[in-house]
Amino acid sequence: MELLKQKIIDHGIVKAGGVLRVDSFLNHQIDISLYQEIGKEFYRLFESDNVTKILTVEASGIGIACMTAQYFGVPVVFAKKSKTSNVAENNYVGHIYSFTHQCHNDIIVNREYVTPQDRVLLIDDFLAKGSAFEGLIDIVKQAGAYLVGAGSVIEKGFQGGGDKLRSCGIRVESLAIVDSMEEGQPIVFRN
Amino acid sequence: MELLKQKIIDHGIVKAGGVLRVDSFLNHQIDISLYQEIGKEFYRLFESDNVTKILTVEASGIGIACMTAQYFGVPVVFAKKSKTSNVAENNYVGHIYSFTHQCHNDIIVNREYVTPQDRVLLIDDFLAKGSAFEGLIDIVKQAGAYLVGAGSVIEKGFQGGGDKLRSCGIRVESLAIVDSMEEGQPIVFRN
Question: Which of A140, B50, B136, B191 is the least crowded, having the fewest Cβ atoms under 10 Å away?
Answer without folding.
Answer: B191
